[in-house]
Structure formats: C-alpha cells, structure tokens
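This entry is passed on directly below:
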Amino acid sequence: MTAKAELRVEGRLPELGGATAWLHSRPLTPADLRGKVVIVQFCTFSCINWLRTVPYVKAWDRKYRDHGLVVIGVHSPEFPFEHDLQKIKSALGGMGVDYPVAVDNQFAVWRAFDNAYWPALYFVDAEGRIRHHHFGEEDYERSERVIQRLLTETGSSDVDEDLVSVEPDGVYLSADWGTLRTPETYVGYARATGFASPGGLEPDGRTVYVEPSKLELNQWALSGDWTVGEQITTLNEPGGRIRHRFHGRDLNIVLGSRAGAGPVHFLVLLDGEPPNGASGLDVDERGIGTVSEERLYQLIRQDAPMAERTFEITFLDAGAQAYVFTFG
C-alpha cells in the first residue's frame, strides 16, 4: 500500500465499555480517542498466531505513539485459564506489552466489533472511523503504511516513512509458511480433528487409550488413562502419551496442569529419539521439560530440510492438561 492509497470507511469505533478490566490505562471510550489514530488488536495470550505479531505491534507503538497513535489490545480469552486477570498481567508483562489492554472476558468488545479472529487488527482514524482491518498474521508492511497514512491525515508532517526494523526470535519468529503442512490441532473434543486412537474420542469419560500401529500425516493419538473434555484433555495416571505426525519447522502445544497437581514433568521424542538440535525453547536437548504454568510451550524447532516427523510427549506425572497443538 502506498501513502496515497484510498482507505474506505468500514464503520465506526464501537464502545469499549463491555471490558471487565483495563491494564495500563483507565477505561477508554471513543470520545476519549477522538483526534487520535487508533489500532485495536484482538488477542489471547496463549495464541501462537497473536504471539508472532507482538514484536511488530510493540514497534509501531514505540515509533508512532508520540505522533498520535494509540494501540489498544483487547484480550478475549480462548481457554478457561486465560480469564484469570493475574495470569493475563503476568503473560503480557513478560512480553513487554505496556500499551492499554481491555480485558474482554465476556466477549462484549469482541461482539461489538463483530469480530471472529485471533489476531485481528482494526485501524481507526482521528474521526473515529474504521478505515482498514487485517485478520491473522503477516501483511506488516501494509498495516504500517495504513498507520502512516492515517497519521498524515491528522496533519502530522513529520511521520517517518521508513518501516520499523523487527528481528523476532523464539516463539515470535514468523512461521516457515513454505514448508508448513500441518494445521493447528485441538485435543478437546469440541474441535478435535485427525484423532487416530482406535475407538475414537470418548467425550468427558475417563478412558484408557491405545495408539495405532501407524500415524498418517496430521494424525494424532493418545495412550494411557485420559479424560477428553470439550476444550481440555487431562491425564489421570502417570505415563500417558500424545503422539502427532506433523510437517513443519516448529511444534508448540498449549499445556497446563489440573488444580492441585503441581508441576508436571515430561519427555519429548522426535522419531523415537531425543530432539537434540531440534529442541524448542521449553525442552533441553534430551527432550526433558516441565509444565509449570498454563501457556504455550515450544517443544520442537528444527532446521531445514523439513520432512514428516513423529512427535511424542510422555508425561511422567498425572494431572497434565493439553489444549491445542500449533505449528510454524
């Protein structure tokens, strides 16, 4: 997008009053924001798709705040643990997110925008009109050009037209879209796909699962004593395992532990061997790691060339809870 590209009016900034709490700000209203360029981003702190946008949004906030840009995060939780205000504060604080965040535990702001995505960006001009939106990741250059255009419309004459320089790493590194062949995989029955253990999932019932002799690409299986809930799959006895056949550079999983269970230790293998140089941030080269809090865990990051691999994670303690696999 060039600085002269036209931006049509898509609607008006709705009220934000449905937020259950605010971080880093008093509650904001459209009237408070009149005269400012605003970007509103919907997020939830365990979402890898949102995490990979964080370095860019933070960089825009730093560069353009003094020119009249206001960045607002709207934290609309996907999983039950993401309703906890202290966990939200801790997660966002650890990422260095210090711009205003509306905590949207009742999805009131989500509904006011008629939103359906994590992440989603809405770009609002100084008159309170939504002029652009972007759903999902990437498109960072176009998004920044929109910010520059809207700031220029306010009369700012000293907006630097260079783009921010961002070099993300860790979980923030963009997916390797050219080699990624595996979609996100939920392990709760409400959205589960690709489940391959014989007999299928038993909703809400304590069940001993076994693995099939072979997994095809994008299939996964359980072994051991598990209870599969709508969103959360919980291990009842030590030694349970999840296996997944995937194709991608990164494998992440959102994990937690049952109340009172304490830390849960686990062992990760890749094609039956320790991951060694393919270990992610949350395991060592032997594949050893610990679930210490509810969040996204990066377990595999491998170098090219990519191929189909079989991932497995064995939990050495009862009480492990799994939510969703994501890939990059």
DSSP finds six helices and 18 strands in the chain.
